[in-house]
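Bumping with the actual sequence this time:
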Amino acid sequence: MDQAAWDERYAGPELVWGAGPNQFVAGELAALPPGRALDLGSGEGRNAIWLAERGWRVTGVDWSAVGLARAAELARRRGVSVQWVQADLLGYEPAAGRFDLVLIAYIQFPAEDLAHLLRAAAAAVAPGGTLLAVGHDADNIARGYGGPQDPDVLWTAESVAAGLDGLTVHRAGRAERHVPTAEGERVAIDTLVRAGRPA
């Protein structure tokens, strides 16, 4: 989807992804002490706002002006401050070694573009910092529910982990995400990779 398509999608009456954080973001990051966080592809801001509510100083980056406007309003209503940046993730260069946490959640780029994003994200992690990447897994088409059906934009844990130069990978694999639907609960297959830069 291009920028205009995301603007149109975020212009609907309801939040596309909901107001609460992604379950893996909450599960993996709740115990981290707050610092500076970078949310790459923040959309309507649910993960960035959740981090800000826990004391993080958050920068949220997305290319959809409509999504970021909705994120800013949601942050205002919840009484937190986030620095919102409108930028194309493939052209955005975060400061090297600046962030105690870098988050990439469901950015489904083709392999070459994803590798570029992962290099920039890894470089932005400060000593002692954490990178968390969560996305739709390549196995989801055959075994999971929903998500993109184009295999060229789906992740594998191996390819994501391989792109994190300078970081130590602590977890890399598939994770099941339970999705409520009108027909009952379904299971989506995601890639989850957690890594850190040695202090």
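The tokens above came from a reply further down the thread. The chain has a mean pLDDT of 93.
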